[in-house]
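Students often ask why inverse folding is considered easier than folding. One informal answer: many sequences map to the same fold, so there is more than one right answer. In these notes we will look at a single instance of the problem. The structure comes first.
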């Protein structure tokens, strides 16, 4: 069943249909998984419409992999996700830098993206500076949220 999934676009919110397409899962399965996995809490708006964020799409892909590819049961996948979350919390408390997935990216030089140090490479036609600035702002927001979260976790110890 190893089918490659499409890349996740740089959007803030995704509808349940978009998430289904991105994760190879039907919408009714996503609604069921919400009941089984407390980590999945999409934002609900008018008429109970669900809007998923990027981290939830990644979580759904992880759940899908555990269930469909690795053969876990729902309960087994739930336990595995809790173990993974506990491991990440332990790493945060130990002060380790979380760089999961960094190896999946190529260096800026190989992508033709100019570095901060004056590299003269050109941007690809489909990437505009406004998109890069938007991604940079979002990454800074995430960093700030993580900093606040780590500070809060440290105070509760």
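Output (designed amino acids):
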């Amino acid at each position: 069943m190893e089918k490659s999934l499409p890349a996740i676009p740089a959007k803030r919110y995704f509808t349940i249909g978009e998430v289904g397409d991105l994760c190879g899962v039907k919408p009714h399965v996503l609604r069921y998984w919400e009941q089984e996995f407390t980590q999945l809490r999409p934002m609900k708006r008018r008429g109970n419409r669900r809007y998923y964020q990027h981290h939830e799409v990644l979580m759904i892909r992880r759940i899908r992999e555990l269930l469909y590819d690795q053969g876990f049961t729902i309960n087994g996948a739930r336990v595995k996700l809790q173990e993974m979350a506990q491991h990440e919390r332990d790493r945060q408390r130990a002060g380790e830098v979380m760089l999961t997935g960094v190896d999946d990216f190529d260096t800026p030089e190989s992508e033709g993206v100019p570095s901060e140090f004056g590299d003269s490479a050109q941007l690809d036609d489909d990437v505009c500076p406004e998109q890069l600035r938007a991604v940079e702002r979002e990454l800074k927001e995430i960093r700030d949220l993580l900093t606040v979260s780590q500070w809060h976790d440290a105070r509760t110890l």
